[in-house]
Design a protein that fits this description.
By secondary structure, the protein is of the alpha/beta class. The chain contains eleven helices and twelve strands. The chain has two domains: 3-100 and 295-321, 3-Layer(aba) Sandwich (Rossmann fold); 104-292, Rossmann fold. The protein is globular and about 50 Å long. Residues 121-157 have low confidence and may be disordered.
Length: 331
Protein backbone atom coordinates (compact mmCIF):
# COMPACT_ATOMS: atom_id res chain seq x y z
CA UNK A 1 0.00 0.00 0.00
CA UNK A 2 1.66 3.29 -1.07
CA UNK A 3 1.93 5.83 1.76
CA UNK A 4 2.66 9.56 1.48
CA UNK A 5 2.94 12.00 4.37
CA UNK A 6 3.28 15.59 5.48
CA UNK A 7 6.28 16.42 7.68
CA UNK A 8 6.38 19.47 9.94
CA UNK A 9 6.89 20.69 13.48
CA UNK A 10 4.60 21.20 15.23
CA UNK A 11 1.91 19.47 13.20
CA UNK A 12 -1.23 19.66 15.30
CA UNK A 13 -3.98 20.85 12.94
CA UNK A 14 -2.96 19.95 9.40
CA UNK A 15 -5.68 19.32 6.81
CA UNK A 16 -3.30 17.62 4.38
CA UNK A 17 -4.41 14.03 5.12
CA UNK A 18 -8.04 14.94 4.47
CA UNK A 19 -7.16 16.74 1.21
CA UNK A 20 -4.95 14.00 -0.17
CA UNK A 21 -7.24 11.14 0.81
CA UNK A 22 -10.08 12.90 -1.03
CA UNK A 23 -7.83 13.27 -4.07
CA UNK A 24 -6.86 9.61 -3.96
CA UNK A 25 -10.50 8.56 -3.74
CA UNK A 26 -11.51 10.77 -6.66
CA UNK A 27 -8.63 9.44 -8.78
CA UNK A 28 -9.46 5.81 -8.01
CA UNK A 29 -6.24 5.31 -6.01
CA UNK A 30 -7.98 3.30 -3.33
CA UNK A 31 -4.81 1.65 -2.06
CA UNK A 32 -3.08 4.93 -1.23
CA UNK A 33 -2.84 6.36 2.28
CA UNK A 34 -1.71 9.79 3.50
CA UNK A 35 -0.43 10.48 7.00
CA UNK A 36 0.62 13.41 9.18
CA UNK A 37 4.03 12.74 10.73
CA UNK A 38 5.29 15.33 13.23
CA UNK A 39 8.99 15.75 12.45
CA UNK A 40 11.48 17.84 14.39
CA UNK A 41 14.12 19.74 12.39
CA UNK A 42 16.85 17.30 13.37
CA UNK A 43 14.67 14.41 12.17
CA UNK A 44 14.15 15.77 8.65
CA UNK A 45 17.07 13.90 6.99
CA UNK A 46 15.71 10.62 8.36
CA UNK A 47 12.20 11.52 7.22
CA UNK A 48 13.39 12.17 3.68
CA UNK A 49 15.38 8.95 3.89
CA UNK A 50 12.07 7.09 4.06
CA UNK A 51 11.25 8.40 0.59
CA UNK A 52 14.68 7.41 -0.65
CA UNK A 53 14.24 3.87 0.70
CA UNK A 54 10.73 3.52 -0.74
CA UNK A 55 8.95 3.30 2.60
CA UNK A 56 7.14 6.53 1.66
CA UNK A 57 5.95 7.35 -1.86
CA UNK A 58 6.52 11.05 -1.26
CA UNK A 59 6.23 13.78 1.34
CA UNK A 60 4.98 17.31 1.67
CA UNK A 61 6.85 19.73 3.89
CA UNK A 62 5.59 22.55 6.03
CA UNK A 63 7.12 24.78 8.71
CA UNK A 64 10.05 24.72 9.45
CA UNK A 65 11.42 22.36 6.78
CA UNK A 66 10.99 24.03 3.39
CA UNK A 67 14.37 25.71 3.08
CA UNK A 68 16.34 23.03 4.92
CA UNK A 69 15.03 20.37 2.54
CA UNK A 70 16.49 22.13 -0.50
CA UNK A 71 19.95 20.96 0.53
CA UNK A 72 18.82 17.40 1.23
CA UNK A 73 17.40 16.41 -2.15
CA UNK A 74 19.31 15.40 -5.26
CA UNK A 75 17.50 17.57 -7.76
CA UNK A 76 15.39 20.73 -7.58
CA UNK A 77 12.48 21.19 -9.97
CA UNK A 78 11.54 24.74 -10.99
CA UNK A 79 10.49 26.90 -9.20
CA UNK A 80 12.06 25.25 -6.13
CA UNK A 81 15.49 25.91 -7.60
CA UNK A 82 14.83 29.65 -7.79
CA UNK A 83 13.36 29.74 -4.29
CA UNK A 84 15.77 27.32 -2.62
CA UNK A 85 12.65 26.13 -0.81
CA UNK A 86 10.87 22.79 -1.15
CA UNK A 87 7.39 21.72 -0.11
CA UNK A 88 7.07 18.47 -2.08
CA UNK A 89 9.54 15.58 -2.39
CA UNK A 90 9.22 12.44 -4.49
CA UNK A 91 11.57 9.77 -5.91
CA UNK A 92 12.70 10.11 -9.52
CA UNK A 93 15.86 9.99 -11.65
CA UNK A 94 17.46 7.61 -9.17
CA UNK A 95 17.21 10.04 -6.26
CA UNK A 96 14.99 12.59 -4.55
CA UNK A 97 13.39 15.47 -6.42
CA UNK A 98 12.28 18.58 -4.55
CA UNK A 99 9.52 20.77 -5.92
CA UNK A 100 7.60 23.80 -4.79
CA UNK A 101 3.87 23.84 -5.50
CA UNK A 102 3.26 26.84 -3.23
CA UNK A 103 3.89 29.23 -6.14
CA UNK A 104 1.13 27.60 -8.19
CA UNK A 105 -1.14 27.66 -5.14
CA UNK A 106 -0.55 31.36 -4.54
CA UNK A 107 -1.09 32.18 -8.22
CA UNK A 108 -4.39 30.31 -8.13
CA UNK A 109 -5.51 32.32 -5.08
CA UNK A 110 -4.36 35.66 -6.50
CA UNK A 111 -6.30 35.00 -9.69
CA UNK A 112 -9.32 32.91 -8.78
CA UNK A 113 -10.01 34.38 -5.34
CA UNK A 114 -8.66 37.93 -5.47
CA UNK A 115 -9.18 38.57 -9.18
CA UNK A 116 -5.72 40.06 -9.71
CA UNK A 117 -4.91 38.43 -13.04
CA UNK A 118 -7.62 40.43 -14.76
CA UNK A 119 -7.73 44.03 -15.86
CA UNK A 120 -11.22 45.47 -15.85
CA UNK A 121 -13.35 42.43 -16.62
CA UNK A 122 -10.80 40.78 -18.87
CA UNK A 123 -8.99 37.62 -17.80
CA UNK A 124 -5.38 37.05 -18.75
CA UNK A 125 -5.64 34.25 -21.35
CA UNK A 126 -3.14 31.51 -22.18
CA UNK A 127 -0.15 33.07 -23.88
CA UNK A 128 -0.16 36.08 -21.60
CA UNK A 129 2.83 34.86 -19.59
CA UNK A 130 0.91 32.66 -17.15
CA UNK A 131 -1.94 30.33 -18.00
CA UNK A 132 -3.39 29.69 -14.54
CA UNK A 133 -0.91 27.20 -13.18
CA UNK A 134 2.88 27.14 -13.07
CA UNK A 135 4.05 24.44 -13.07
CA UNK A 136 1.01 23.55 -15.19
CA UNK A 137 -0.41 20.43 -13.56
CA UNK A 138 -4.17 20.78 -13.41
CA UNK A 139 -7.32 18.92 -12.41
CA UNK A 140 -9.32 17.13 -15.09
CA UNK A 141 -10.27 19.69 -17.74
CA UNK A 142 -8.09 22.42 -16.21
CA UNK A 143 -8.67 24.69 -13.23
CA UNK A 144 -11.60 26.46 -14.84
CA UNK A 145 -13.63 23.32 -15.52
CA UNK A 146 -12.88 21.29 -12.43
CA UNK A 147 -16.49 21.08 -11.37
CA UNK A 148 -16.82 24.37 -9.51
CA UNK A 149 -19.43 24.36 -6.77
CA UNK A 150 -20.97 27.81 -6.37
CA UNK A 151 -23.32 26.78 -3.57
CA UNK A 152 -23.05 29.21 -0.73
CA UNK A 153 -21.00 31.66 -2.79
CA UNK A 154 -20.80 35.08 -1.20
CA UNK A 155 -20.08 37.72 -3.84
CA UNK A 156 -18.27 39.74 -1.19
CA UNK A 157 -15.72 36.95 -0.72
CA UNK A 158 -14.21 36.79 -4.20
CA UNK A 159 -12.56 39.46 -6.33
CA UNK A 160 -15.19 39.57 -9.05
CA UNK A 161 -14.38 41.81 -12.01
CA UNK A 162 -10.79 42.92 -12.54
CA UNK A 163 -8.00 44.89 -10.94
CA UNK A 164 -6.54 48.10 -12.36
CA UNK A 165 -3.10 47.23 -11.00
CA UNK A 166 -3.07 50.01 -8.41
CA UNK A 167 -1.28 49.79 -5.08
CA UNK A 168 0.17 49.81 -2.62
CA UNK A 169 0.53 46.02 -2.71
CA UNK A 170 2.00 44.60 0.49
CA UNK A 171 3.53 41.28 1.51
CA UNK A 172 3.88 40.76 5.26
CA UNK A 173 6.49 38.19 6.21
CA UNK A 174 9.77 36.75 4.94
CA UNK A 175 9.55 33.00 5.59
CA UNK A 176 9.32 30.13 3.13
CA UNK A 177 5.72 30.93 2.21
CA UNK A 178 6.66 34.57 1.55
CA UNK A 179 9.31 33.43 -0.94
CA UNK A 180 6.59 31.68 -2.92
CA UNK A 181 4.33 34.74 -2.77
CA UNK A 182 7.12 36.98 -4.06
CA UNK A 183 7.86 34.76 -7.06
CA UNK A 184 4.14 34.37 -7.75
CA UNK A 185 3.81 38.17 -7.77
CA UNK A 186 6.63 38.49 -10.29
CA UNK A 187 4.92 35.97 -12.57
CA UNK A 188 1.57 37.67 -12.14
CA UNK A 189 3.14 40.99 -13.15
CA UNK A 190 4.79 39.36 -16.17
CA UNK A 191 1.47 37.86 -17.27
CA UNK A 192 -0.34 41.17 -16.92
CA UNK A 193 2.43 42.99 -18.78
CA UNK A 194 1.90 40.62 -21.68
CA UNK A 195 -1.60 42.08 -21.91
CA UNK A 196 -0.41 45.67 -21.45
CA UNK A 197 -1.87 45.71 -17.93
CA UNK A 198 -0.02 47.58 -15.15
CA UNK A 199 0.85 45.92 -11.86
CA UNK A 200 1.83 47.68 -8.66
CA UNK A 201 5.29 46.72 -7.40
CA UNK A 202 5.21 44.60 -4.27
CA UNK A 203 6.44 46.01 -0.97
CA UNK A 204 7.93 43.37 1.32
CA UNK A 205 7.69 44.09 5.05
CA UNK A 206 9.57 42.11 7.68
CA UNK A 207 11.71 42.18 10.80
CA UNK A 208 15.00 40.84 9.41
CA UNK A 209 16.52 43.17 6.77
CA UNK A 210 18.48 40.35 5.15
CA UNK A 211 15.35 38.24 4.74
CA UNK A 212 13.37 41.22 3.46
CA UNK A 213 16.03 41.73 0.78
CA UNK A 214 16.02 38.03 -0.13
CA UNK A 215 12.25 37.95 -0.61
CA UNK A 216 12.10 41.30 -2.45
CA UNK A 217 14.65 40.11 -5.01
CA UNK A 218 12.15 37.48 -6.14
CA UNK A 219 9.20 39.86 -6.38
CA UNK A 220 9.96 41.44 -9.74
CA UNK A 221 10.94 44.93 -10.89
CA UNK A 222 10.40 47.80 -8.49
CA UNK A 223 9.89 45.68 -5.38
CA UNK A 224 10.38 47.73 -2.21
CA UNK A 225 11.68 46.77 1.22
CA UNK A 226 10.48 48.09 4.56
CA UNK A 227 11.00 47.25 8.20
CA UNK A 228 8.27 46.00 10.50
CA UNK A 229 7.78 49.41 12.07
CA UNK A 230 6.26 50.55 8.75
CA UNK A 231 3.70 47.74 8.64
CA UNK A 232 0.74 49.48 10.29
CA UNK A 233 0.86 52.56 8.08
CA UNK A 234 1.32 50.57 4.88
CA UNK A 235 -1.41 48.02 5.65
CA UNK A 236 -3.76 50.92 6.37
CA UNK A 237 -3.20 52.30 2.85
CA UNK A 238 -2.83 49.10 0.86
CA UNK A 239 -5.11 47.98 -1.92
CA UNK A 240 -3.65 44.46 -1.91
CA UNK A 241 -2.40 42.67 1.21
CA UNK A 242 -0.87 39.18 1.39
CA UNK A 243 -0.28 38.08 4.97
CA UNK A 244 2.45 35.43 5.32
CA UNK A 245 3.53 35.69 8.96
CA UNK A 246 2.48 33.37 11.79
CA UNK A 247 0.66 36.16 13.65
CA UNK A 248 -2.86 35.26 12.62
CA UNK A 249 -2.19 31.55 13.08
CA UNK A 250 -1.69 32.39 16.75
CA UNK A 251 -4.84 34.50 16.81
CA UNK A 252 -2.86 37.75 17.01
CA UNK A 253 -3.75 40.92 15.08
CA UNK A 254 -1.70 42.27 12.20
CA UNK A 255 -0.47 45.88 12.47
CA UNK A 256 -2.89 48.20 10.74
CA UNK A 257 -5.75 45.72 10.38
CA UNK A 258 -8.07 48.19 12.11
CA UNK A 259 -7.30 50.74 9.36
CA UNK A 260 -7.91 48.66 6.23
CA UNK A 261 -9.41 50.63 3.35
CA UNK A 262 -12.66 49.80 1.56
CA UNK A 263 -12.05 47.78 -1.59
CA UNK A 264 -8.87 46.11 -0.32
CA UNK A 265 -8.07 42.65 -1.69
CA UNK A 266 -6.59 40.48 1.02
CA UNK A 267 -5.15 36.97 1.24
CA UNK A 268 -4.07 35.55 4.61
CA UNK A 269 -2.05 32.39 4.04
CA UNK A 270 -3.08 31.03 7.43
CA UNK A 271 -6.39 29.22 7.83
CA UNK A 272 -8.58 27.71 10.54
CA UNK A 273 -10.94 28.98 13.20
CA UNK A 274 -8.28 30.93 15.09
CA UNK A 275 -6.86 32.62 11.98
CA UNK A 276 -9.90 34.60 10.84
CA UNK A 277 -9.32 37.95 12.56
CA UNK A 278 -7.63 39.70 9.65
CA UNK A 279 -10.06 38.34 7.06
CA UNK A 280 -13.00 39.41 9.23
CA UNK A 281 -11.51 42.88 9.65
CA UNK A 282 -11.07 43.24 5.89
CA UNK A 283 -14.63 42.20 5.18
CA UNK A 284 -15.91 44.61 7.82
CA UNK A 285 -13.93 47.38 6.11
CA UNK A 286 -15.66 46.66 2.79
CA UNK A 287 -13.03 44.49 1.11
CA UNK A 288 -13.40 43.68 -2.57
CA UNK A 289 -12.10 40.21 -1.69
CA UNK A 290 -10.84 38.72 1.59
CA UNK A 291 -9.94 35.06 2.02
CA UNK A 292 -7.79 32.87 4.21
CA UNK A 293 -5.23 30.38 2.94
CA UNK A 294 -7.49 27.35 2.57
CA UNK A 295 -7.90 27.82 -1.18
CA UNK A 296 -4.17 28.21 -1.70
CA UNK A 297 -3.64 25.07 0.43
CA UNK A 298 -6.02 23.08 -1.79
CA UNK A 299 -4.45 24.31 -5.02
CA UNK A 300 -0.89 23.54 -3.97
CA UNK A 301 -1.95 20.14 -2.59
CA UNK A 302 -3.55 19.27 -5.94
CA UNK A 303 -0.22 19.91 -7.66
CA UNK A 304 1.67 17.94 -5.00
CA UNK A 305 -0.66 14.95 -5.29
CA UNK A 306 0.12 14.74 -9.00
CA UNK A 307 3.85 14.76 -8.27
CA UNK A 308 3.48 11.84 -5.86
CA UNK A 309 1.08 9.67 -7.85
CA UNK A 310 1.23 10.73 -11.49
CA UNK A 311 -2.59 11.07 -11.43
CA UNK A 312 -4.61 14.20 -12.09
CA UNK A 313 -6.01 15.84 -8.98
CA UNK A 314 -9.69 16.73 -8.66
CA UNK A 315 -9.63 20.14 -7.00
CA UNK A 316 -13.39 20.17 -6.47
CA UNK A 317 -13.27 16.89 -4.53
CA UNK A 318 -10.40 18.16 -2.41
CA UNK A 319 -12.15 21.44 -1.66
CA UNK A 320 -15.33 19.64 -0.67
CA UNK A 321 -13.38 17.49 1.78
CA UNK A 322 -12.35 20.57 3.79
CA UNK A 323 -15.55 22.60 3.40
CA UNK A 324 -14.17 25.10 0.91
CA UNK A 325 -16.54 26.70 -1.60
CA UNK A 326 -14.67 27.29 -4.83
CA UNK A 327 -15.25 30.49 -6.79
CA UNK A 328 -17.50 30.12 -9.83
CA UNK A 329 -15.72 30.04 -13.21
CA UNK A 330 -16.56 33.65 -14.03
CA UNK A 331 -15.64 35.11 -10.61
Amino acid sequence: MPVAAVLGWPLAHTLSPRLHQAAYQAAGLHGWRYEARPTRPEELPAGLGLVRSGELAGVNLTTPHKEAAAALVDRLEPPADALAAVNTVWPAYGGLVGGNTDVAGVLWALDRQLGLARGGDQAVPPGGGWDGGDPAVRPRGGWDSAGWDSAGWDSGGWGGGGWDGGGPAVLLGTGGAALAVALAWARLAEARAGRALPTSPLTVVGRDPARVTLVARLAGPGAARLGWDAAADLVGRARVVVQATTLTARGEPVPGQDKLVPGVRLLDLNYGLHAQGLVAAARAAGARAAVDGLGMLCAQAAEAMTRHTGARADLAAMAAAVGLTLPPPDA
